[in-house]
Structure prediction request, 102 residues.
Amino acid sequence: MDRRENAELYAAFEALLDAGPEPPLPSVTDAAVAGGRRIRRRRTAVALAGALVVAVCGVTTAVNVADSRPDSVQQEPLAPPTPTQEPTEVPTPVATPEPAPG
Prediction:
């Protein structure tokens, strides 16, 4: 670096320092409290999501178990079945005479 670059850099830093007072540093306590709130919010959201997943899995399991159990009581249909074809009469067998021996 030559002297001219040093002078320009020095002038830039002087302009920054002369621009105004530095902002006050935030309180360490305030930063810790804000960080704790964020952590609690995230932890609560994750816990609620986990509880929702467990509830959905429990309901799904209960439904699957209920569907897989054999029915102990025969359930009758609500209405009699409707025939798709008219019942046909079975012909009565006719006795045929036996031929005479001879």
Q: What stands out?
A: DSSP finds two helices and no strands in the chain. The helical segments are 3-18, 28-68.
